[in-house]
Amino acid sequence: MSTGEVWALIGLCAAVTFVIKAAGPIALGRRDLPAWFVDVIGLMAPALLAALVVTAALADGRHLAVGADTAGVGIAGVALWRGVNVVVGVAIAAAVTAGLRAAGV
Fold first, then answer.
1. Can you list the alpha helix ranges (DSSP code H) found in 1-105?
2. Burial, 93: exposed, middle or buried (Cβ in 10 Å; 0-12, 13-18, 19+)?
């Protein structure tokens, strides 16, 4: 793929994203959304984040795999569930993963 084709693809993606994001406000105008719909929209970001974390923690190329990164995410998840700060949770995940990889797991 040439540089011009890559930039054309990036421009096309930007244009399509703009059209998709503009479609909602144009279609709805100034009408309010129902409360249940607002609740669903609020849950979409955490669901997407959870899907990305699970995919990153359990995928090894094209196959499912459990390894050091899975253990790091799992232990950090428990720590976050118990109430630690997000920054501390990320540090725990990195430390556990690095430790296990250094140990050859």
1. 3-28, 35-58, 68-81, 86-102
2. buried
pLDDT of residue 96: 96
Amino acid at 101: R
Averaged pLDDT score across all residues of the chain: 91
| 21 vs 16: CA distance, rounded Å | 9
Tokens encoding 87: 């920054």
Domain boundaries, the chain: 1-31, 34-105
User: Model pTM?
Assistant: 0.55
CB contact set of 80 (below 8 Å; sequence gap of 6+): 86, 89
Angle made by CA atoms 82, 72, 104, in degrees to the nearest 5: 150
Sign of the CA dihedral running 47, 50, 56, 59? negative
The separation between CA 13 and the C-alpha centre of its own chain, rounded to angstroms, equals: 19
